[in-house]
Design goal:
Elements lengths: L2 H9 L4 E2 L2 H8 L12 E3 L4 H14 L3 E4 L16 E4 L15 E5 L4 H8 L4 E2 L12 H7 L6 H4 L6 E8 L4 E4 L12 H5 L7 E9 L1 E2 L3 E9 L2 H14 L3 E8 H11 L11 E9 L4 H14 L3 E7 L2 H12 L1 H8 L3 E6 L5 H13 L6 E7 L4 E7 L4 H14 L24 H14 L14
Parallel strand pairs: 2-4, 3-4
Antiparallel strand pairs: 1-2, 5-9, 6-10, 7-8, 7-9, 11-13, 11-14, 12-13, 12-16, 15-17, 16-17
Helix pairs in contact: 1-3, 8-10, 9-12, 13-14
The structure holds D-malate and zinc ion.
Length: 454
C-alpha cells in the first residue's frame, strides 16, 4: 500500500490533497521566499488522526512539515520537496471559557481572531496580537513562541501557554491540559514544546491564560528626532502609565513606503526621522491620563517634535495602520530579505545608524527598511533589491551577534537562519538541543532542517 492509500484510510479521502492546484497554497510561504512541492497535504480532524498520520509517515519513512495559518516568516511551515504537509486547519475546537482560572483550551488551528472572538464576549482577552491575526493560528504562535505588539504588557506567547496537547513523532500523545496553577511533577514538557518550531511534536491543542478585556484604549503617535529620544520617551511613559500596552517603532523611509502603498496622508506634518506609536488600555477612559503623561514626557524629552492622539476606534485604527501596514507595503515592492533580530537598548541607535552600511557591503544599491517593537529592542530588518539573500543574512546576523543581540527575536529560526544558530547559542547548548531532538524524534521525521542545519 502507498502512503497516500494508508493516509486516506486513516483520515478520509477528501483530506489527503494531491492535486497541485489545491496543494499550491500550502507549498509557498507568505513571503514567497520559501517554496517546495509537498508529497501531499493532509488535514487530520483531531489528535487521534494526527497520531495516525505521524505513525504512517514514520512507517513509510516520509518526513512531515506542520503548517498552521502559513503566516510564518522563516520558512518553517512549508515543504522543501517531498514532505507530507500536516495542516492544522481542522483542529478548530474552542472549549468552555473558565472564568475562575481565566483560561480556555483551543485547537491548534484556531486563529488569533477566532480566539479573540470566543473570549471577548466573556470580558476576557488573549495577550498576544499582531497584524496577521486573521490567519495566524494558536498552534503556530506556540510553535514559534510568537511575540507581537503586546509583549510589553503580557510577555510573549510562552507566558500565555499554561498547558498543551501534542503528538510526538512515534504517535504517542502528551496531554498537559489540566493546567493546575501548581504542578511540579518532573520536566516542563509544555515549556519545552513551546518554541520548538514543529521539530519535536505536532501541537494539537493549547490551554492559554486570559487577561481582563479592556474597554478603553488610547493611542498616541510621537514624531522624534532620534531613536534614542524614542527610548527616553518610552522609559518616561512606562513610569507614568501602568496601562501601557504597546510601543512600536518605525522610521521615515518605512513611513514613506506605507503612505505610497496605502495612499494614507502623513500622520504628522513634516518629515521626521523616527516615530513611536504607543497604546494604553484600561477599563476607564485614559485620554486625560495619556495627555498629562505626554505633556510631562514632552517637557523631559526635547527630541519629541510632535504628537497626535487617537481616542475613538477609527482614529486608533488609522494610527495603527501606519505601523501594521509596513509588512505588506514592503512586500508590494519586492521580495525582501526579512531578518527579525533584537539588540540591547544601549545598542539600538548605533544599530539603526550602522545597519544600512552593513548591508551595503554585500548588497550595494539595496534598501534597508527597519521597524519593530521598541520595548524589546526587536528590529525587523527588511532588505529590498538585494541579489544575494544569503550574503545579506550572513552580514546582518553576524553584526547583530557582535552587538550581543539575538538573531531571532520572535519569528523563530526556521530554515532561514538555521545555518547561523551557533552565532548566539554555544556548542554545549546546541549539543543539548540536538540530544532532545534525537530523543523525541530519533527518525528525524518532524520538520527536518528547521532550527538545526539540515
Ligand atoms: C510585525 O511586527 O509586523 C511582524 O513581525 C511582521 C514583520 O516582521 O513583517
Ligand atoms: Zn514583529
Amino acid at each position: 500500500m502507498t502512503l497516500e492509500t494508508d493516509l486516506r484510510d486513516a483520515i478520509g479521502d477528501k483530506h489527503v490533497l494531491v492535486d497541485p492546484s489545491v496543494t499550491a497554497s500550502y507549498e509557498t510561504d507568505w513571503t514567497r521566499r520559501f517554496a517546495g512541492r509537498a508529497r501531499c497535504v493532509v488535514r487530520p480532524a483531531d489528535t487521534h488522526e494526527v497520531a495516525s498520520v505521524l505513525q504512517l509517515c514514520g512507517r513509510h519513512g516520509v518526513t512531515v512539515v506542520t503548517q498552521g495559518g502559513n503566516t510564518g516568516l522563516v520558512g518553517g511551515g512549508v515543504p522543501t520537496g517531498g514532505e507530507v504537509v500536516l495542516s492544522t486547519s481542522r483542529l478548530r475546537h474552542t472549549g468552555p471559557v473558565d472564568t475562575v482560572s481565566g483560561q480556555v483550551t483551543v485547537g491548534a488551528g484556531v486563529t488569533v481572531t477566532g480566539l479573540q472572538q470566543a473570549v471577548r464576549p466573556m470580558g476576557l482577552d488573549f495577550g498576544v496580537d499582531f497584524a496577521a491575526r486573521d490567519s495566524a493560528t494558536i498552534g503556530g504562535l506556540v510553535s514559534t513562541n510568537a511575540g507581537g505588539e503586546r509583549v510589553l504588557r503580557y510577555g510573549s506567547t510562552r507566558q500565555q501557554v499554561v498547558g498543551l496537547e501534542a503528538v510526538l513523532a512515534d504517535g504517542s500523545v502528551v496531554s498537559r491540559l489540566e493546567a493546575l496553577p501548581k504542578d511540579n511533577t518532573g520536566y516542563d514538557l509544555v515549556g519545552l514544546l513551546t518554541g520548538s518550531e514543529g521539530t519535536l511534536a505536532v501541537i494539537t491543542a493549547v490551554r492559554v491564560r486570559l487577561w481582563p478585556l479592556f474597554t478603553h484604549r488610547t493611542v498616541a503617535l510621537l514624531a522624534l528626532e532620534t531613536t534614542s529620544d524614542a527610548l527616553a520617551a518610552l522609559a518616561a511613559l512606562k513610569l507614568r502609565l501602568v496601562s501601557l500596552e504597546a510601543a512600536e517603532l518605525f522610521l521615515a523611509d518605512g513611513l514613506a513606503l506605507v503612505m505610497g502603498h496605502t495612499g494614507l496622508p502623513a500622520p504628522i506634518p513634516g518629515d521626521h526621522p523616527a516615530y513611536l506609536l504607543v497604546e494604553c488600555a484600561d477599563r476607564v477612559d485614559l485620554g486625560d491620563a495619556m495627555l498629562k503623561a505626554l505633556e510631562e514626557v514632552g517637557a523631559l524629552v526635547p527630541g519629541i517634535v510632535d504628537i497626535v492622539m487617537g481616542d475613538d476606534a477609527r482614529s486608533r485604527a488609522n494610527l495603527w495602520r501606519y505601523r501594521e501596514a509596513h509588512t505588506e507595503s514592503i512586500n508590494a515592492i519586492g521580495i525582501p530579505v526579512k531578518l527579525d533580530v533584537a539588540v540591547p537598548h544601549a545598542q539600538l541607535e548605533r544599530a539603526l545608524q550602522e545597519l544600512p552600511g552593513v548591508v551595503a557591503q554585500v548588497a550595494p544599491g539595496s534598501r534597508t527598511i527597519v521597524f519593530g517593537h521598541l520595548h524589546e529592542g526587536n528590529l525587523h530588518v527588511n532588505v529590498l533589491g538585494a541579489n544575494d539573500h544569503h550574503a545579506v543574512t550572513d552580514v546582518v546576523l553576524k553584526y547583530v551577534a557582535s552587538l550581543r543581540g539575538s538573531i531571532s527575536a520572535e519569528h523563530g529560526v526556521g530554515r532561514a537562519k538555521s545555518e547561523w544558530l551557533s552565532l548566539t547559542r554555544s556548542p554545549a547548548e546546541i549539543a543539548a538541543m540536538r540530544s532532545i531532538k534525537a530523543a523525541l524524534d530519533p527518525g528525524q521525521l518532524l520538520n527536518p532542517g528547521v532550527i538545526f542545519p539540515g
